[in-house]
């Protein structure tokens, strides 16, 4: 069995790249009786956060579960580095982060205010370099 990061985690990390935050993912640990891939994620603030990727569920459920955990880490890292702590920020309203949800066969980032499904998880648009 390989302990490398599951596809779902790698997909969410593509979105993290749009935040300007770099996260380091430890080598995964043996599931050890749990039906989940577990590891620790490290950010620039020096803190390590445990992550658990459920394996016995559909890919979109996995993506939402992972996005939820990673979102929290990115927001903490942004806050630590003094940036706006909304990530991914809602492009319609601004000022609040999007929420990972299951939308039919897809896993998407949704506006929690009007429930517009905005982006597929893993396909957040890259901010233009130098954007505030
Ligand atoms: Zn919104």
Any overview of this molecule?
The chain has 132 residues and is of the alpha+beta class. It has one domain (7-120). It is built from two helices and six strands, in the order H-E-E-E-H-E-E-E. The N and C termini lie far apart (43 Å). The mean pLDDT is 89. Zinc ion binds next to loops. Zinc ion binds at residues 90, 92-93, 96, 111, 113.
Descriptive key words:
binds zinc ion; globular; alpha+beta; 2 helices; 24% helix; 132 residues; 3-stranded antiparallel sheet
Strand content: 15-25%
Q: Total number of β-strand segments? A: 6
Total domain count: 1
User: Roughly how much helix do the residues carry, as a percent range?
Assistant: 10-25%
Order of strands in the sheet with the most strands? Answer: 1-2-3
**pLDDT < 50 runs, ≥5 residues:** none
The gyration radius over C-alpha positions equals: 15 Å
What structural category do the secondary elements indicate?
Answer: alpha+beta
Strand/helix succession? HEEEHEEE
- What's the rounded overall pLDDT mean? 89
Largest sheet: 3 strands, antiparallel
Q: With helices defined by DSSP (H or I, 4 residues minimum), what is the helix count?
A: 2
Span from first to last CA? 43 Å
